[in-house]
Write a structure and sequence with these properties.
about 15% strand, alpha/beta, Rossmann fold, about 40% helix, 15 helices, about 375 residues, globular, 13 strands, 6-stranded parallel β-sheet
Length: about 375
């Protein structure tokens, strides 16, 4: 099988990429991982220490403000830089991990070296580039048309791209080579998958885990908890995630508005898996109705702990399951609907919880690594 050249602009911002690289390395796939960085502090970040088949190339290539302002200048610069790296081979298959920034480089290398590539579509591609950068939409569609495969992290994002941003005459072609592959979760969450006992709690325990940002719609969750209490339900809401990556003004506002509420608990961010597992197991429903979300790993982690979910329609995990199987999708702007779905879950709690535990294997590293290896071979 060909070696794989990964192009990953966002590698140092998310551990999910290092997990995937490790999985593929364990399957014997030879890889060069190219990572453009903007800070010396990012050099070497999240690089797994023991890999047999993988080379990493962190490159401080995006240095000037012009590199960020002029999109095609940046694409050309990164393409030339990749060609200069030890381990680069024009015989490699390219895996571009974002559509515009990484896919643009893949398309450039394809035109020059006739290299084949597959490309992933992520949150920034859909909710920034396609949505606001009108002058780049045709370029994005061209990347999709020239790719051998197009990877979406959720069925909802696949449908949104095809129906909203792809020309009618190109939908069938792009759709035929599109696949939906979720991000893998750490094996820790499946060793073993947690099965909940008979539900006996009188209190409804809601949980949010994630960054404290406006996009996460934390105010909407707090309002839903308030509505439930006004309707006579004993509700506790735990919000885990306060830390360095907060949107400071928003985080201060959350602390100010929820501080006096005895039923809201605010918890600092933690990466300790055992601590997080206790939060998951100590809750009844995981609630994260973000305004935009590609595929949050916390959904799958919560699922593995038998925790029913509430998420936003058309975002995140939407489309993987039928409504009511693992929880419900909601309009994130409607806290009343969020509250109603909480009660709907509680009415069938054990049935939904057991189905959540049973579906956790869909997000296993082994399964997802095997899917990617098959794509590469194809």
């Amino acid at each position: 099988m060909k070696s794989v050249l990964h192009i990953i602009n966002g590698y140092t911002g998310n551990r999910v990429y290092s997990h995937l690289i490790s999985i593929l390395d364990s399957l014997g796939i030879k890889q060069l991982v190219y990572i453009p960085v903007r800070s010396d502090q990012d050099i070497g970040k999240y690089q797994p220490t023991v890999l047999k088949n993988t080379k990493f190339a962190y490159s401080f290539v995006i240095q000037s403000v012009f590199d960020r302002l002029f999109f095609f200048r940046k694409i050309r610069k990164i393409s030339r830089d990749i060609e200069s790296k030890d381990g680069f081979s024009a015989d490699s298959l390219i895996h571009a991990h974002t559509l515009f920034s990484d896919g643009g480089v893949a398309l450039t290398l394809q035109r020059k070296h006739k290299m084949e590539y597959l490309v992933a579509v992520r949150n920034t591609d859909l909710n920034l580039f396609f949505k606001y950068f009108f002058f780049l939409r045709g370029f994005g569609e061209g990347i999709l048309l020239n790719a051998r495969k197009v990877v979406f992290l959720s069925p909802a994002y696949r449908d949104m791209v095809l129906n909203r941003y792809v020309k009618l005459q190109n939908r069938e072609l792009i759709g035929s080579k599109s696949v939906v592959i979720p991000n893998p979760i750490d094996p820790y969450w499946q060793s073993p998958v947690y099965q909940r006992e008979v539900y006996t709690q009188k209190q409804i325990r809601l949980l949010f885990v994630g960054e404290i940002r406006r996009n996460k719609n934390i105010h909407g969750i707090i309002q839903a908890a308030k509505i439930l209490r006004e309707r006579g339900h004993d509700v506790k809401l735990t919000i885990v995630g306060f830390g360095l990556n907060d949107e400071k003004t928003y985080a201060r506002d959350i602390r100010k508005t929820s501080g006096p509420l005895k039923y809201v608990e605010l918890v600092e961010k933690t990466e300790d898996k055992e601590t997080l597992r206790q939060f998951y197991r100590g809750a009844d429903i995981f609630v994260m109705p973000s305004f935009t979300e590609t595929f949050g790993l916390v959904y799958a982690e919560a699922l593995s702990q038998g925790l029913p979910l509430i998420w936003s329609k058309g975002q995140g995990i939407d489309g993987y399951f039928e409504e009511g199987e693992i929880g419900y999708s909601v309009d994130p702007k409607n806290s009343g609907i969020i509250a109603e779905k909480v009660i709907k879950i509680m009415d069938r709690y054990m049935e939904i919880s057991h189905f959540c535990s049973a579906q956790a294997s869909l997000f296993s590293r082994e399964r997802i690594g095997t899917i990617y290896r098959s794509l590469y071979q194809e």
